[in-house]
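Anyone opening a protein record will find just a pair of labelled lines. A complete record is shown below as an example.
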Amino acid sequence: MDLGDVRYRPETGCAAQADLRHDSLTATAPPAERWLLIESHTPWPRQALTALQRSSSDLGLGDVVARRCRELGIRPVLIRRFGRVDRTGPRRWGLVDCRPGHELVRWGDLPTDEHLLEVLAGKDTGQVSTAPIYLVCTHGRHDACCAVRGRPVAATLTAAYPERTWECSHIGGDRFAANVVVLPHSLFYGQVAPARAAELAKQYDERAVVPDLLRGSGAFIPPVQAAQHFARAAGHSPAVDNLLPHTVAVLAEHRWRILLASTNGLIAVEVSAHLDTVDARLTCAGSSPAQIRRFELHNLTPA
């Protein structure tokens, strides 16, 4: 897409170009150990949280919520159901802990946007839910590829799992649209086609990941995500709770030795990260050239 283009075309969007380049999904999940899900009945602006408003005349609630979330290590996103929604009905909030061994989902009612401050302060703890959550990024005002590729996936998942599926605002990795996050394990999937959307949910019900679509888990740093990817590629179990990090050692700049706890005992994985410069935009609104991080496997052995 030329710099002068103002019209979006799917065949020249960032996701289509990433497909042509065969961009790797490996270890591209952003940090996301905890999530705040905010149901919204209004159109989403480019910067999602600017849609939040106090009940008083102060319209800066989005900044307050964003700052508090940063302090708590929480990722906030707007959510909505796919298709026509009764905008007069009650809204909900969700708080999700994705840390290994602490996975938990809580839901509560959201009478006003300002009530989010009560939730973040722990004054409203909601109710625990055991049902998984599927977030599909459809934030078209942030990047058109997310909407064009995300909505068909949201439709497919909604048809199969209506109570578990939500459209969501920007989660990162626009070029990997359609992007899906499975909670509470914070599993980021990319390049998801409608035909494979239900597969992610079915595998999760069986406590397994789908390795070829997995960007990584936001509960782990990218070097750990990379180590887990290479271990699965070497034949280790794709079980959700397999390959948890035991230790992470920095060997040199951009090089790590990671011990993973597998079903076959500890394994040592040595990886390094490299930046490749590409003559491309990584988002539809981005600039060229850009840099892409790539992980390389150096060693994988029993510890």
